[in-house]
Amino acid sequence: MAVTISDVALAAGVSKGAVSYALNGQPGVSPDTRDRILRVAKDLGWKPSLRAKGLSSAKAYALGLVVARDPSLLGTDPFFPAFIAGIETALAEHDYTLVLSVATAPGAEERCYRKLVDNGRVDGVILTDVRRGDSRIPLLLELKLPAVTLNRPDASSPFPAVSVDESAGIFAAVEHLVTLGHRRIAHVGGGQEYIHGRSRRQAWEDALAAAGLPSDHFAAADFTAAGGVAATAELLRRADRPTAIVYANDLMATAGQSYAQSLGLSVPGDLSVTGYDNAEFTQYLNPPLTTLATDPMLWGRVSAQVLLNQLAGAHQSEDTALPAPRLVIRASTGPAPD
Amino acid sequence: MAVTISDVALAAGVSKGAVSYALNGQPGVSPDTRDRILRVAKDLGWKPSLRAKGLSSAKAYALGLVVARDPSLLGTDPFFPAFIAGIETALAEHDYTLVLSVATAPGAEERCYRKLVDNGRVDGVILTDVRRGDSRIPLLLELKLPAVTLNRPDASSPFPAVSVDESAGIFAAVEHLVTLGHRRIAHVGGGQEYIHGRSRRQAWEDALAAAGLPSDHFAAADFTAAGGVAATAELLRRADRPTAIVYANDLMATAGQSYAQSLGLSVPGDLSVTGYDNAEFTQYLNPPLTTLATDPMLWGRVSAQVLLNQLAGAHQSEDTALPAPRLVIRASTGPAPD
DNA sequence: AGCAGCAACTGAACCGGTTTAGTAGTTGAC
DNA sequence: GTCAACTACTAAACCGGTTCAGTTGCTGCT
Hints:
Two copies of one chain form a homodimer. Chain A is α/β, with parallel strands linked by helices and 338 residues long. Chain A has three domains: 5-48, 434 Repressor (Amino-terminal Domain) (Orthogonal Bundle), CATH 1.10.260.40; 62-164 and 296-323, Response regulator (Rossmann fold, 3-Layer(aba) Sandwich), CATH 3.40.50.2300; 166-293, Rossmann fold, CATH 3.40.50.2300. In chain A, 43% of the residues lie in helices and 14% in strands. Chain A is built from 13 helices and twelve strands. A six-stranded parallel beta sheet of chain A has the order 2-1-3-4-5-11, sandwiched between helices. A four-stranded parallel beta sheet of chain A has the order 7-6-8-9, with helices on both faces. A two-stranded antiparallel sheet of chain A has the order 10-12. The longest helix of chain A is centred in the middle third of the chain and has 16 residues, at 195-210. Chain A starts with a helix and ends in a 10-residue tail after the last strand. The model of chain A has no long low-confidence stretch (mean pLDDT 93). The interface between A and B is large, with 59 and 58 residues. β2 of chain A pairs antiparallel with β2 (97-102) of chain B, so a sheet runs across the interface. Chain A binds a DNA duplex (30 and 30 nucleotides) through α2 and α4.
């Protein structure tokens, strides 16, 4: 049977209240009494009942992650597993758990957040895939649910943000292509409703501007393979066909590369291709994909830590910046065709 | 402020106990009184406090999933996202949540289960990646934690199992290759410590036996790309080189295919290749991969339902069988070379 | 009519912790 | 010496629900 603080109080000869103060580092007991209580609790093998703690302190000791992506996209995205693993490393140090929800149906995301709050399931949430004018920010304010966002939202947000400077990664990819002699470097963007979709495009534009090149070869897509094929088809139909394409994620790069090859184009002879995320399978493509590698595990760990600090009462005044993506050069990029 | 059952009791003119019986469908209140209580509760907008319910009923209203795979493997496996999405569809109907842990460090898996139990975090767990002599079965018995297993473990297990007959899928892949004229059909197995690793191999052997062909072209791997390359290299070094390889998962097939191509072999001209799982990216490989498609979302949903039924007191006497994988024929398989 | 059994309720205990209001003792300032 | 402020404790209330033991009234049987 579980040892309760009543057992500890009895054995230590003090009240339950004193035990609670001692065990939680609260003032109100003398140092001697505190030591005695802590020793008795340890000797008896006392462990807090998180259920009881939760009820009296109105806390869940859990963080929430609501993923609103289609599962088929998640299955090819190396980001989330590593991100979640990173979150876990932070949570394990605090006896918190991760409550995961996948909410892809229309309206499911909002219903999911409301349910988490109504049921007191989580103390805070980690917001990934931040969108322009993200409706989750006002929703979470209404629900009084603390949050941390991945990247700084475009609209005003009171929540701390953990950011990666994606510009440097895309800049490096574009520079690599410019060095290889490319002058028509296109970009197949992810969903432009996402902050990260926009920032990758902006970085592509800025890098081309720095190289004195036009940024008029842009096609929007939605991070899906089908979207990547359609965008690639659009770009390759142009009279001034690009000699290189910078894709906003690996799946689109994979599908786009495959599509170009199906047209008889050689990669990288006729068209160079870069991706984003360094998915495990990309090194085994034919040819292996040049891509950008991020550190999602670190991102997950830091995000969880920032949110836990927030919940503990610390107020983060500045966004946390993580290292930029690293360019991984493989065989999908080569000299521009003559 | 939240409406409690005390508020409902006061407004309905009955005791808290009567309210609890009425709201939980328990006997002990007359039909008239029950109706009145239910109406008052609804009018007042009463919602149960899961924290309070949890404390008094010793339940967490959550299911646990501990994933002991390396995150990089998860990022290329379409199984888990869809599986988790399927779990969610069942949980949503019961106001349960999913507590997810990723535990890859040595010993972390066991520590994770113990912590979930110590903290009363979950009412039951779903066991994926069942292994031969899986130590989790006795562990969960010791911890008195209900579970459902994916596939029937080889050792005695009191937990209900949800199974897919993988034989039919692998059988179909081998038959497809036999029909194409292949006589030396190899198998690159996943981790043979896993039940599903063994059963895929067994199915390959059985299908070859049925076709009157020898099953001596086997190489063990570990579901990783590097493992797939090494196993492929071993097989391709044989004097009696196989003309086709059935891989236990898509990542190994992708890497193996790529490796064979790097040796100057043509796929499928010199070597036909099949995978398993139908990952999104496989249709964009060069050539697109022939593979087996399962329904992980259904698997997730059914598994969660079986476990929830178990927790509700129902005792499942038979394992639940799900449909066999479906062969998806693409361009990585073709006629055997002369 | 009397008795046994059952249903319909009740109030209180319980779940295991946190916080509040109160009491007693001590210390320092005047 | 007196008073105010503080510390160190206490018992009880509270968190919001579930279950238990007890009481009352009703019904059916003898």
